[in-house]
Structure formats: structure tokens, C-alpha cells
Amino acid sequence: MQDRCACYLLGLRGIDKYLAGRLSEDTLINNLAHEWASLPTAMGKGAYAGQNAAVGPDRVRKVLAKVRQRHGASQPAREIVVEKEVDKPVVPVSVEAEIRKRTDQWSWITTIFGSGGAGLAALAGMDWQTVTAIGALALGGLIIALLLRRQIVCAVQDVRRMIEG
């Protein structure tokens, strides 16, 4: 029963944190000196005024080193994880072709509808400013589609270069 009580008090003062490496040896020694009057602080004095410790701090350090050694020996061996080599992902060449194909479709659709709209506006007797505005919108749509196509294809090529290294 006395051993269990001592283990409980060691736990309260941080022995588990010390063994895990989250508490310094000096801090643990000072904590233990406040629990047991016979143990010194890290400076070699008693924790309370006028108190003399029964042993020196070097003796406490040796005992703590032995405790840490025994604790480490009783722990299961850590498993070393070896990373497996993963195949590099590849962006297929067909992605570029598909992007070009789809942006070409939108370019044609924009051109056809824009030109058709301008032609119908001219046939309907609209003034030349309206016909020009419709034609300019169609031309703007075509330019945007062409620019986006080039930008998207360049982005896919950049991704491929980064992946392939």
C-alpha cells in the first residue's frame, strides 16, 4: 500500500511528464523536494526554510537516470515507418487535347452566334452602331475564348511539369 501511495505522489509531482520528456529534471527534483522533506531541491538545499536534505542532488539525479533507463527498457520498441515509394501521378496528354477541343467548340459557337446576330440585325434594318456593337461583342467573346484556351493549356502543362519533376 505504501508503494502505491508513493507512486501516486510521484505522479502528482510529474514523474510521468519527466519520463515522456516534457518536464526537466531540475523541475522534477524541485517538485519532489516539496513532497518529501528528505529530498533536496536542484540547488542542494531543502525546499523549506531551515531544512537540510538527507541526500545530495547528485544522488537524486543518479536515481532518476536509473528510473528513466528502466522505464525506457520496459517500453515497447517504436515501430519505424518506412515510406513506400509511390508512383508519380501523370497528367495524360489527352487532357490538353480535350481542353483544346472544348475551347475550339466554344470559339466556333461564339463566332457563329455573334456573326449571325450581327447579320440578322443588319437585315432587320437596325442602325450601323447596333450591328457594330453586336459584332464587337462576338469578336470579344472569340478573343476571350482563345485567351482562356491558351491559359488553361499552359496551366495543365505547368501541372504536368511539376508532377513529372
UniProtKB/TrEMBL annotation:
<keyword id="KW-1133">Transmembrane helix</keyword>
<feature type="transmembrane region" description="Helical">
    <location>
        <begin position="106"/>
        <end position="124"/>
    </location>
</feature>
<feature type="transmembrane region" description="Helical">
    <location>
        <begin position="130"/>
        <end position="148"/>
    </location>
</feature>
<protein>
    <recommendedName>
        <fullName>Glycoside hydrolase family 104 protein</fullName>
    </recommendedName>
</protein>
<keyword id="KW-0472">Membrane</keyword>
<keyword id="KW-0812">Transmembrane</keyword>
